[in-house]
Input
Amino acid sequence: MDMGNQHPSIIRLQEIQKEVKSIEQQVIGFSGLSDDKNYKKLERILTKQLFEIDSVDTEGKGDIQQARKRAAQETERLLKELEQNANHPHRIEIQNIFKEAQALVKEKIVPFYSGGNCVTDEFEEGLQDIILRLTHVKTGGKISLRKARYHTLTKICAVQEIIEDCMKKQPSLPLSEDAHPSVAKINSVMCEVNKARGTLIALLMGVDSTETCRHLSCVLSGLIADLDALDVCGHTEIRNYRREVVEDINKLLKYLDLEEEADTTYAFDLGQNHSILKIEKVLQRMREIKNELLQPQSPPELYLSSKTELQGLIGQLDEVSLEKNPCIREARRRAVIEVQTLITYVDLKEALEKRKLFACEEHPSHKAVWNVLGNLSEIQGEVLSFDGNRSDKNYIRLEELLTKQLLALDAVDPQGEEKCKAARKQAVKLAQNILGYLDLKSDEWEY
Output
């Protein structure tokens, strides 16, 4: 319809809807909390648009009333999504874990403020545990959660890198201060750089309200300028020493751009990451092999060729670059478990087939273990095919079946037979691994 022939109220509603649409992606991707400035800004814009919609005069006309209703519903939908993003249980979980990291930094990173580099094993282990827990937070593919998890991980991993780099590589003084006047200045700058590490860590973790990224960037850039102004011509060792300190400063400057870089590069969207695509390619081939193996009458000769290819897939996963990203590491870990579980299934199938060919007298307890292994093979086939969550009836059924097999193994009396003891121990481990794999498949984790 030609806009010139439309009712002014309809035209106004379309203008409002256009304004609401312009911030839709900001709302969908909002990864902060309800007390963030950007949250309040978006909320204010949407609320204002609701008032604008409400003020449009319908003149009692049905088509205008319907148009106003649709515009209000769309705006209310975005307001609701904004609120849900900020208050999502997993978003709160991310924030609570981050608060633990903040508390750890406040308590343990004090030596950096005085220019030291004494970090306890307890701090490093605590930080690694926090990174692992953040990696396991489920996003359900939701953009806002992926961004929140990525931003939080990026900050904490940056702190970990800064500390590790400081611990393993400290520039060493090549000459005494008497050798050249510039050495004293470089030493002085190096002390300032060490203190800046503590300030940077505090900034990244949000535990220093007295400093800003912009100011710290100016300070570090000023230190580089001071070093560049030094005359060290003809003194190779001093020039190398200065270069080391400049490199350290540039590394710290790089961390100040983390937040902006994460948003502009969409690095949080690992679905397009090269390493993730490699992992997905491996998993796709693994699934094709799995489907062949789970056919009702898959031939035994298929086992050897499948196992050889699956072992090759493990090799491909080993070559995947982790890019210092714990989410990629977790994705690879899960993929390795997927492939290894299928290899274990093939191994067990092969063992059961061989046992049929070489039937012989055996100890009753040993036979009982083999009976359980036969049951586990059937259950494992079902677990490999399972595609659901922990509330599914089939999950509960499979969990109960595996628990029954563990109880059956517990009831087996080896009667002193060492071979039977070893077989039972292996069967228990297999049942527990299948249970663990069932949990892994059903926990709804997404990178």
Notes: The two ends are 45 Å apart (CA to CA). The CA atoms of residues 300 and 353 lie 8 Å apart.
